[in-house]
Each structure stands twice: as structure tokens, then as C-alpha cells.
């Protein structure tokens, strides 16, 4: 079967919601074009930006780095740096860091690694082994967000690009609704906004690319990426939402894009309210926060107290 775009090459991928069949080259071009259009339409980048790409070593971030690297070459004043957060997860993150390094060496992109241990004095393995109130992912998400901002700030970035794809964005929006946290919907937006000089504006150039296409892009581009799952598991509710959305998308192609569009419009309405929120310096770390202390510092204190109590308990049990 011939490609719907070039009419010559062999079919590689069928994009249901557009009713087209693409060859490998046209598929790769179409994803890059989609990302470029998102960047232009939402004014995600300026020609002289210093862009830090959050590079986990997974399919999405490896694909994003490759796409931004191609774009950057067309805008010589822009600079690209990759930042990997090492959460301290044995038999998992080491491989991802190695893949991230290898990718950066190949593309000749500067690579910086920042670790939870270095920043917070605790690893995710220690968090997961403690008797804590929340699931490991709840701590990991907050601490990784803070680590990325800290790393990007140290590098002197003007934008922090994360590899959230369409599925991530739609799942997060539904999760926020299910948790009753409507105000957080304003964060599901790929438009960069700056609430404080200490926050590096975040952009999500892959927000309109579905997960199946980010995976296929990395594969078709011949990229190496990590595919083993994290041993600390994922969020169970997010997993259920993912399954439900994938079933619905099969029956109703384009549904994820429709939900994303609706969330974007809602986000614009709520976003203006969020942007007027007052921020103050966290009493512990000095980062901007709407409360007296930031979420990460509150979590870290609880984690360290639990770790201490667990050590004492285990010592008493051994004794
Ligand atoms: Fe962190 Fe959870 Fe992701 Fe593992 S699955 S890296 S613990 S957020
Ligand atoms: Zn083609
Ligand atoms: Zn703090």
C-alpha cells in the first residue's frame, strides 16, 4: 500500500483520526511538523532561548530531544542542554542515565545529571522502603519537579521543555477532576507562564502528539530508549484512566484531542485566576510557594521523620 502523502513509499503507519497511511519518512516528518506547529501556535520558544530538555532516557524525552535538536540547528542563537534527574532507583535509573548520556554524545548536546541524593539527601529506593502515607510516585513527582526547576535554574535556562505527550496531559486533567482539584487543571497547559523569577517557564512541545506516536517516532528514528518499567510502579488510578481512554479512542478516533482542546479552553479560564496567585519564599528552601512552606519541603520533612522512626523500629525489632 502506498503512502497517502508521497504516494510512493511503503506504508508504515495508519493515523486513524486523519484517515491517512504514512511511510516511515512521512510519519517522522509529520510528527516534527506537529511539534513545530505547537511551538509556533503557543509561542513556546524565542529564537535566543537557552532550552533545557528534561531527558529521562524514555521514548518521549529521547524523541523530544531529537526533534528540538533538529529545530535548534535552524535557529543558531538557541542553545540546547539536556538535564537528567537521577531519583536513585536501582536497576532502573542507571540504565536510563546511560542511555541519556549516549544520546547526548551522539547529538553533541551538553548533558547534566542531578540526583535526589545530592539535592535532598534521600533516594527514591529509601522513600519506597519507608512506611509512608502516600504512594512513592506522589513523592517522586513533586521532588522531580523541584529538581528539574533547580537544575534548569543552575544551568541558566530560559525554558524547561518536558516530554509530556497528549495522553499524559489528558490523563492528568481527568485525574485532577477525579481528585476534585479543579484549580490544577490550569497546569495542564503547554503555554509557558512565569509566576516568579525563580521558576523556569515550562513548555510541553509534545502535548499534541499521542503516546503511540511518540513511541513510534523514537523507534522509527532509530533511537535507543529505556523500555523497562520503574520497580516502584505507577499511579493505579492513572493506569485505569489510561486503559479507559485507549479503549474509547479505538472506538472514537480523535477523542483524546477533543478532550485536550476542551481542557485547554478550561485552562485559559482558570489560568488567569492561577496567575494572580501570590507567591512568597518558602521558609525552608526559599523557592516560591503560595503557602508558607513549599510542598517538597513539607514532604521531605515527613519522609525524613518516617525514615528515622523506621530505623529506630527496625533497630528495636533486631535488638
Ligand atoms: Fe518515580 Fe513513580 Fe515514575 Fe517510578 S513510576 S520514576 S517512582 S513517578
Ligand atoms: Zn511518504
Ligand atoms: Zn521549600
Describe the structure.
The chain has 319 residues and is of the alpha/beta class. It contains eleven helices and nine strands. The protein has helices spanning 24-41, 59-72, 93-107, 116-120, 124-129, 136-155, 166-178, 211-220, 236-251, 255-275, 295-318; strands at 13-15, 20-22, 50-54, 79-86, 110-115, 159-161, 202-203, 280-281, 288-289. Strand 4, helix 3 (93-107) and strand 5 (110-115) form a beta-alpha-beta unit. Helix 1 (24-41) crosses helix 8, helix 2 (59-72) crosses helix 8 and helix 7 packs across helix 9. The radius of gyration is 21 Å and the shape is globular. The mean pLDDT is 89. The structure holds iron/sulfur cluster and zinc ion (ZN) (2 copies). Iron/sulfur cluster binds next to helix 6. One zinc ion binds next to helix 11.
Helical amount among residues, as a percent range? 40-55%
Order of helices and strands: EEHEHEHEHHHEHEHHHEEH
Per the principal axes of the C-alpha atoms, what is the gross shape?
Answer: globular
Question: Helix- and strand-based class?
Answer: alpha/beta
The kinds of small molecule bound in this structure are:
iron/sulfur cluster, zinc ion
Point out poorly predicted stretches. none
Percentage beta strand: 5-15%
- Count of DSSP E strands? 9
Output the number of helix runs: 11
Radius of gyration: 21 Å
Report strand order across the widest sheet: 5-4-3-6-7
Mean pLDDT: 89
The CA-CA distance between the termini, in Å, is 72 Å
Amino acid at each position: 500500500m502506498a503512502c497517502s502523502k508521497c504516494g510512493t513509499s511503503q506504508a508504515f503507519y495508519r493515523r486513524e483520526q486523519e484517515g491517512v497511511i504514512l511511510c516511515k519518512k512521512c510519519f517522522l516528518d509529520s510528527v516534527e511538523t506537529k511539534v513545530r506547529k505547537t511551538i509556533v501556535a503557543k509561542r513556546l520558544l524565542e529564537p535566543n532561548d537557552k532550552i533545557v530538555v528534561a531527558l529521562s532516557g524514555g521514548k518521549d524525552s529521547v524523541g523530544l530531544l531529537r526533534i528540538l535538536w533538529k529545530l535548534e540547528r535552524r535557529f543558531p542563537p538557541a542553545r540546547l542542554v539536556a538535564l537528567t534527574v537521577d531519583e536513585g532507583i536501582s536497576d532502573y535509573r542507571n540504565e536510563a542515565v546511560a542511555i541519556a548520556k549516549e544520546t547526548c554524545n551522539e547529538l553533541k548536546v551538553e548533558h547534566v545529571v542531578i540526583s535526589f541524593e545530592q539535592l535532598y539527601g534521600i533516594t527514591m529506593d529509601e522513600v519506597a522502603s519507608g512506611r509512608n502515607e502516600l504512594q512513592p510516585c506522589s513523592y517522586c513527582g513533586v521532588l522531580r519537579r523541584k529538581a528539574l526547576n533547580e537544575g534548569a535554574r543552575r544551568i541558566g535556562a530560559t525554558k524547561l521543555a518536558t516530554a509530556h505527550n497528549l495522553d499524559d496531559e489528558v490523563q492528568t486533567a481527568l485525574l485532577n477532576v477525579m481528585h476534585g482539584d479543579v484549580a490544577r487543571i490550569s497546569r495542564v497547559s503547554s503555554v509557558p507562564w512565569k509566576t516568579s523569577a525563580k521558576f523556569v517557564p515550562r513548555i510541553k512541545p509534545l502535548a499534541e502528539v499521542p503516546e503511540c506516536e511518540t513511541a513510534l517516532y523514537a523507534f522509527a528514528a532509530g533511537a535507543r530508549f529505556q523500555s523497562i518499567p520503574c520497580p516502584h510502579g505507577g499511579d493505579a488510578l492513572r493506569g485505569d484512566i489510561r486503559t479507559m481512554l485507549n479503549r474509547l479512542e479505538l472506538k472514537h478516533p480523535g477523542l483524546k484531542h477533543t478532550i485536550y482542546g476542551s481542557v485547554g479552553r478550561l485552562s485559559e479560564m482558570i489560568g488567569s485566576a492561577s496567575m494572580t496567585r501570590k507567591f512568597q519564599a518558602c521558609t525552608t528552601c526559599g523557592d516560591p510557594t503560595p503557602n508558607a512552606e513549599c510542598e517538597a519541603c513539607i514532604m521531605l520533612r515527613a519522609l525524613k521523620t518516617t525514615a528515622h522512626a523506621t530505623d529506630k523500629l527496625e533497630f528495636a525489632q533486631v535488638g
